[in-house]
Amino acid sequence: MSEIDNLQKAEGEQKELNTDLNKPENQELTGDTNLDLKNTSEIEESPQPDTDESTITTEDSNNSDDLEDNQESDEVIDEIEASNAEDAEDEGNKDRHKIEVKEYDKMSLESLAIELEKLLKSEKIQAIRSHVDNINSEFKTKFQALIDEKKADFLADGGNEIDFYYSSPVQKRYKTAYREYRNKLNEHYKSLEKNLKENLANKLEIIEELKGLINVEENINTTYKHFKELQERWRNTGAIPRDKYNNAWNSYHHHVEIFYDFLHLNRDLRDLDFKHNLEKKLKIIERAEELAQSDNIPSTFRELQELHKMWKEELGPVGKEHREVIWERFKAATKLINDKRQLYFKEIDKVYEKNLEKKEEIISKINEIAAEKVNSHGAWQKKIKEIESLRNDFFNAGKVPIKVNEATWAKFKDAVRAFNRNKNAFYKGLKKEQYQNLQKKLELIKIAEDNKDSEDIEVTTALMKKIQSDWKKIGHVPRKDSDKIWKQFKAACNHYFDKLHTERNASNKVELDAFNSKYELLDSLKSLKLSGDKIKDLETINAQVTSWKSIGRVPYNKRYIEGKFHKTIDSLFSKLDMDKNEVEMIKFENKLENLNSSDNKRDLDNEHSFIRKKIDEVKHQINQLENNLQFFTNVDDDNPLVKEVHTNIKNHKESLELWTSKLDKIKKLY
To answer: Which residue has the higher pLDDT, 83 or 518?
Structure first.
């Protein structure tokens, strides 16, 4: 049996075998011949034909057990002869028995492609056919499963089925190797076909020459020498078409038998051939009996095939008295080997049955997951990972009996497709929402790009921060757009903030220089001495205030220096012989200049609101004090309590006048 036949058996397929037994001994020589050198044309009556060794001989032809055993023996011999006929057609076929059969079903797509490339480089093209068939079957199965998965993802992302296309480097690599295999195989068979036809013609010519040997009138020794030459030519002629093999071989041996039976051949010469053949066949039998004790079933059966080929093709007949005995002995050894082989296959079948149970359990789990109701993206992602793990377990579970292989694969595909249908239905429901989210994010991108070059730092910075926050709150968009729009949005935001940071860095240096200058000015004010002349001293103080303002803004974290400066200036003003309110107004005017030059207009607004509030408070306090005086109608004005109330009213009115003046000043700035 060939390697591919063995694999088919291992998959659970029992090949139908022809029960007709073409026993090699059928073509052995029968009858005795007498050599009559004086009258070679005289042909003695042919003896009765020997019992055909393909006929089952038994003491009790009704014994059904014996008939069954004989039938099994005949079947395995037919199987061996069919395999030998295949090898005889192409000598390179023998090498297929030496190539390791690997677990292709557990290989990845890339590993299958690499394995095919290795076989093409290291083995004869005709010897790898069964291996390539198995590799091709596994690759197509696994790649189709991958395509189904990619297609489901494509549809889930909103794609149209008609637009789906998937290709991968490993597929291109495999196709290249498989194309090379097909081309080489075709070239080989074209060459082989031509050689087979030529060899068949040569062998038919040899048979014709054999037919003519019994009709030539020449010395028998010359005829015998010619006969041996024809046998040698037959052995050296190459392979012939498989479907012609048995007929040609039977015809050849039929005419060899006629040559032995009907020519008056020298008995000693014939008996010498018989003896030689018997010795060789006994050695074959002994080797077969040794093999029957071996536990290496695959290699044992391959060697048994070779022994049958030697018996049939390389050796001639033996003496009539030995034929049935040695053939039955050889058949018995063959049956023992085949019985062990069948037990071996039964054990493999048990393993395949366990694998089937595993795969059916995996299919059941996939069906359970497919039936579960899932309503969130996270939950679906979890289920997808579970299905992917189960798919890997299925592919790694091993082979199953070939009779259920296709049905098991179909159930697996149906289960995975049911899951994918439910998954796709969920994500199609999200498609509309994702499209709406996409539009929202595109609007944010437009806002970012429209404002990325804005010079209004305060307003734009707040806007940019807001749209970044809004982006995070918007849900998922279609996967095909996700990266693209994120990069676009990020680029616009980064453009603005990079520009802002660059400007701030430059501004920070200027502000730091301003701080250093103000620090030096503040330090010089500590040693400033006033002249005592009110006008000159006021000009001096105002000049210092003007210098301070001209220096510019300081860093935010160093603005405390402004407070120190105002305290120092207040101290200088307090040394002047001036009205308190006049001094206060001078200080207020300086403050207004600072507020008006500030980038933050709210500071001036806040000051305006503060002054109005103070005016309202002072008016309220004056009204309150005046109301209190009504309680002192019968009290003299010299009363200390009354005098205190009048003093407070006066002070508050002066304060009101001051705040009113401040309000007038600040109004002029609007």
So the answer is: 518
* DSSP conformation letters of 340-362: HHHHHHHHHHHHHHHHHHHHHHH
210/228 Cα distance (integer angstroms): 10
Give the position of tokens 């090379």: 180
From the list 551, 559, 563, 554, the residue with the least C-alpha distance to 521 is: 551
CB neighbour list of residue 583: distance below 8 Å, 6 or more residues apart: 573, 574, 576
| 186: number of Cβ within 10 Å | 11
Can you spell out the DSSP letters for 233-261? HHHHS----HHHHHHHHHHHHHHHHHHHH
Amino acid identity of residue 662, one-letter, is K
d(C-alpha 497, C-alpha 460), whole Å: 10
DSSP state of 12: T
Q: For residues 527 and 183, what is the distance between their CA atoms, to the nearest angstrom?
A: 104
Q: Quick one: 327 exposed, middle or buried, by C-beta within 10 A (0-12, 13-18, 19+)?
A: buried
DSSP letter at 213 equals G
How would you write 625-637 as a 3-class SS string? HHHHHHHHCCCCC
Residue 244 sits at the vertex; the CA angle it makes with 243 and 248, to the nearest 5 degrees, is: 150
Check if the beta carbon of residue 196 is closer than 8 Å to that of residue 239. yes
Tell me the per-residue pLDDT of 263-292, one tens digit each, with 9 for 90 and over: 555 666 677 878 888 999 999 999 999 998
pTM tops 0.85: no
pLDDT band at 670 (very low <50, low <70, confident <90, very high): confident
Query: Residue 552 region, left (φ>0) first, then alpha (ψ -120 to 50), else beta?
Result: left
Alpha-helix runs per DSSP H in 157-168: none
Going by C-alpha positions, the residue among 41, 145, 117, 645 that lies closest to residue 415 is 145
Q: Which residue has the tokens 């014709």?
A: 208
Q: Which two tokens stand for residue 585?
A: 């107004």
SS3 for 449-490, per residue?
A: HHHCCCCCHHHHHHHHHHHHHHHHHCCCCCHHHHHHHHHHHH
The maximal CA–CA distance of the chain, rounded, in angstroms, is 193
Q: What is the pLDDT of residue 486?
A: 94
Spatial separation of the C-alpha atoms in residues 422 and 428, rounded to whole Å: 10
